[in-house]
Design goal:
Layout (H helix, E strand, L loop, with lengths): L15 E3 L2 H12 L7 E9 L4 H13 L7 E4 L5 E4 L7 E5 L6 H13 L11 E9 L2 E9 L5 H19 L12 H12 L2 H13 L20 E8 L1 H13 L4 H17 L3 E8 L16 E8 L6 H15 L7 H7 L13 E5 L4 E4 L2 E9 L6 E7 L5 E8 L5 H20 L16 H9 L16 H11 L4 E5 L2 E4 H17 L7 E5 L4 H12 L3 E5 L5 H10 L4 E4 L12 E5 L2 E4 L29 E6 L9 E5 H14 L7 E4 L7 H10 L4 E4 L8 H10 L4 E5 H12 L11 E5 L5 H10 L5 E6 L9 E4 L5
Parallel strand pairs: 5-6, 11-14, 16-26, 18-19, 18-20, 20-21, 25-26, 27-28, 28-29
Antiparallel strand pairs: 1-4, 2-7, 2-13, 3-4, 6-7, 8-15, 9-10, 12-13, 14-15, 16-17, 21-22, 23-24, 29-30
Helix pairs in contact: 2-4, 7-8, 8-9, 8-11, 13-14, 14-15, 17-18, 20-21
Length: 795
Amino acid sequence: MNSADPTTNAPAVPARLPATAAQHGIWFGQEMDPTSPMYNTAECVVIHGAVDVDLLEVAVRRTLADAEALHARFVRDDDGVLWQDLTPADWPFHVVDLREEPDPVAAADAWIAADMARPTDLARDPLFTEAVLRTGPEEFRWYQRIHHVAVDGFGAAMILRRVAEVYTALAGGEEPPEAGFGRLSTVVEEEAAHLASDRHARSRDFWAEHLADQPEPVSLAEGVPSISGDVLRRTLRLPPEEATRLQRVAAGARAAWSDLALAITAAYVARVTRAGEVVLGLPVMGRLGSAALRVPCMVMNIVPLRVPVDTGRSLLDLTDQVAAQVRRTRPHHRYRHEQLRRDLRMVGTDRRLFGPVVNIMPFDYRLRFGAHEATMRNISAGPVDDLSLGIRLMADGGLQVELDANAQLYRPDVLTTHLTSFVTFLRAALDAPEEPLGHARMVRTVTLAELRHARLAAPSPMGRPAADEQPDVLALVREQARQSPNAVAVEHGDRRLSYAELLAEAERSARRLVAHGARVDSPVAVLLPRGPEIVVSILAVLLAGSGYLPLDPGWPAARLNGVLDDAGNPLVVTDSEHVDLVRGRNVLVVDSAEWTDDQSADKSTVEPSNLDNLDDAPLPTVPAQALAYVIYTSGSTGTPKGVLVSRGALASFAAAATRRYAITKADRVLQFAAPHFDASIEELFGALTTGATLVLRTEEMLESVPRFLDSCAVKRVTLLDLPTAFWHEVVHGMDAGEGVLPGTVRAVIIGGEAALHDRVARWRRLVDPEVALINTYGPTEATVVTTAAVLTGQG
């Protein structure tokens, strides 16, 4: 009998164990490039509340003391046997307070990125990093990075849940439940027995017969897959009703929803590649009925799943076929794919065992730390050969679709296209599960030939996808608020609104708009000066289901009233400074984020007494064809005319623009245009749908070119969107020695009129060629911009 370790209450363990087959594969992969961090996997748990950091450290240390695989050091003896030394060593628990940083969330992401970039020496280094990053008064990020040789995704989730369980018990003054983890030695012993068994031999024979013809897997990439730590990721969250629909269709087919998801993926890959058979990679836990079910370790395997796709048959038929294939292969899931490659003599060749990997994750990702809820965010699942599609059932009932891709094989825009195209295909398949997969009603899917053509063609058009393929802009803003609630969303002078604050204020305001009569697919006028209130108001109008109609407080009374009359006398949102301009109309006054009705306005306005307890009032569900905004033309060629743009069109434009301009969370986008010009839409939704910071221009910035350039430098602006006429003045001023373009600026977008050739030439002499100059064109009627081209100053 083993004695117990008095410091952890855990049984003593053997000092050394043979490495498992799964660990062998990863160890060899790391040995091929010891300086690569590609096998680092990580999760970040955002805890929404003031946790006791000291108690959290106790919970982490207790849990990890029981997780033997995390303390391994790997050595190979003279006989070539790979061993893991399990003697625990001291390790640091990092506590980093980032509250004083300008952007605490961005600072946390940078800290995590730096740690993720560190390679691990498997013979000497700890296989993990544990840290708590404090990003707000009541927000903590618990970050855990573990080398893949130690645990797989299931094992990492076991550790996270156990830490939450231990912390919650200790916070309540109780000892945690005794049941911790099983011993790693039982997993090693069980694997050795399996490898010596008839069952293992039968699995070898099964796979030899099953893959005797060695099918050539198809890929969604053009190059030859090779393992890479440089991974691109794209995610899209689908609402709970989509998950319910997936499960309902699966139940009707008497199949698991995972089998249905695999069938849809196979059909999509076949549709894109025009292949008659698809070989998917299917990650399998390898734990059911095994000692590993209670041991955080690395046992996950990937097996090939052959799926012939007959487009004359239905999705339900294909689901039956996939389910039968999974059942047939299940007894042989423990046979390692590395060994299978050796059996098929694939080692040292470019031949592949499978194409895209499909990871179905029915995990509950909701954790609690005492009284505080937490959200778990996967940072990295490790290296990717080609493409990995993850379908994750979230704790709130929603469905998250994730694409991880080898960055050597996929461009970011191609990966985004695949994600949106796959989700559109999934929805269409669920709409018509009994129809043939090749039926006309099935949505058209992008082909590899089209992606190849797009890769070679000059990227001047915006390349806007169909509107119904794009997530609504509000869904994207919500996602940013969920992922980075403390990140700065809007900045105006010394005023700042975080994403969480912006969304909360917009939702509160939207409920008051609904109470005051705002209707779905109808306009609501916004008459406000430049400032955070106008951004809140625009989002509030959209959340209320209405379309916003921006008005300029500087317009003459005749134009202002003419537009309002033409728009059908809509509800007007304004402030006390400008309320006299719309006296007698249905008005809501917003001052310092306090919304009231105007007492001298039309008495059809709902009284304030009806505005109590609106915090839980539901907001409407709005279709893509509903109104998003109304922009009135200048009237230079006649009476101003209102251009109505749908939410679907806005979603399509926002997706195309953010992709074309490569906007990310790291950007600080200057909001230059007045809200009643459609260029403001490019700035506003380009920033807020990607997690960037929208920096509102001040009037002082327009006093001179030097003042403008200096202000952009101080505000660390990275993306400028300027009227061409103003850009002409900026170039002239720079050429006259009145300032330089700030080093933070990576791209400048211009539009509104033709760019003078000599100014472009001067710009190229004055500015680093790495700074993109993008000339855009598009009439208001075509949703902001239709074409975009990089100006080089040549030709």
